[in-house]
C-alpha cells in the first residue's frame, strides 16, 4: 500500500494544515454574538467588531442602565451605516440571578478555612465575614453540605476572584459557609450560584419586564435571551408577554440553559424556544466539569435535528486579558463547530476585555477552518433519517438548492 493511498484515507490532509487560512473577507457561516460594553461601545470599536465578523450584538442587562445601553445601541446603528454590515440586536435578561451586594466597592479578602455569613439584609456592609445578597429565600433553599459558588469568574474568566463555599449551617435567614479557597472580591458585581438547588424566583422578573416593555419595544429587538430558563412554561410565559406588547410579537426567544433544571426539561424547552444558548459558565458550576461536554454534544445534536440554532458560550475566556487564545480554547471553538453549533457567543471577551476585535476575529477564523472539514454529507444523511421521508415540498426545494450549489 503506497503513501498516496494512506493520505486519501486520512480525514484531514496533513498538508492542508500548512495552507493559508481562509481570507477574512469570507466570513464563517457560524455566527458570532458579541456582547457590547465598556470596552466595545464606541462607533470605531463596534465598526471594527462588525468588520471582524460580529453579526449579533448582545446587550446584557445584568449590569448597566437603559440609558447606557441606549447610547451603545445608537453607536451600533452608526457603525452599521458606516460599515454596511448587518447586525441583529439581542436583549439578555437578568432572570433569577443571585448577586452579592457590595455598596462600598472596596475589595473583600476571603481566607480559606474561615467562615462567612450570607445574609439577605442588604443594609449591612459587606466584609470578610459578612456578605449581603439580593435573595431572602437562600436559607430555605439550602442545607448543610451544599456547594455555593460566588465570584466574577462568570463575567471575567478570572479564577483569582472565584470562591467556593460549603454550607455549614443555617441560622434564621442567614447561611453560614466555610470558605474553601482564598480569594479577593474586588468590584461591585458578584454572582452567586448554588449547585443543583431550585431558586424560587420568576424566570422573567419585574425588572426584566420593565426593560423589555421600554428599551426592548423602543428598539424592536430581534432576539430575547431568556436567562436561567428552567422549563417549557418559562418560554410560553415569555412569549405571551411579548405578544401582549405587540411590537415584539416577532422577536425570537432563545432559551439560556444554565442549570440542571434546564437540562432535565431540555426537550420541552427546545420544543417551545426558537433557539438554545448553552451557558457553559453556570453549567460548569451546576454540573461536574467532566459532564459539561456530554451535555453540549447531546444538546447541540438535538438542536440540529429540530432545526433550531444552538449557541455555545464561554470559549476564549483568556482573551479577556490576552491577545491570543490558549490552544485548548482554540480547539474548544473548533469542536463546538464540529459538534454542530450555529453560533459562538462572546461575553467578557468583548464586553470588558482588552481585545474585543481580536477575539471576534480569531474565533471567526477558527470557525472558518472548522467548517472547511465539517462533514456536510454525514449531517445531511442524519437529518433526513431523523426527519423521515418523504420530505415536505419546501424541504425538498431547499435541499435540492443546497445540493446543486455544492456540486457547482
UniProtKB/TrEMBL annotation:
Pfam short name (any one): PK
Organism: Lactuca sativa
InterPro entries on file: Pyr_Knase, Pyrv/PenolPyrv_kinase-like_dom, Pyrv_kinase-like_dom_sf, Pyrv_Knase-like_insert_dom_sf, Pyrv_Knase_brl, Pyrv_Knase_C_sf, Pyrv_Knase_insert_dom_sf
SUPFAM superfamilies, sorted: Phosphoenolpyruvate/pyruvate domain, PK beta-barrel domain-like
Domain Pyruvate kinase barrel: 30-360
Assigned EC number: 2.7.1.40
Top-level EC class: transferase
Cofactor(s) needed by this chain: K(+)
Record bears the keyword Zinc: no
Swiss-Prot/TrEMBL catalytic activity: pyruvate + ATP = phosphoenolpyruvate + ADP + H(+)
MF annotations from Gene Ontology: ATP binding; kinase activity; magnesium ion binding; potassium ion binding; pyruvate kinase activity
Gene3D superfamilies referenced in this protein's UniProt entry, alphabetically: Phosphoenolpyruvate-binding domains (3.20.20.60), PK beta-barrel domain-like (2.40.33.10), Pyruvate kinase, C-terminal domain (3.40.1380.20)
Name listed for the protein in its UniProt record: Pyruvate kinase
Domain of life: Eukaryota
Pathway: Carbohydrate degradation; glycolysis; pyruvate from D-glyceraldehyde 3-phosphate: step 5/5
Keywords: ATP-binding, Glycolysis, Kinase, Magnesium, Metal-binding, Nucleotide-binding, Pyruvate, Transferase
UniProt-listed PANTHER family: PYRUVATE KINASE
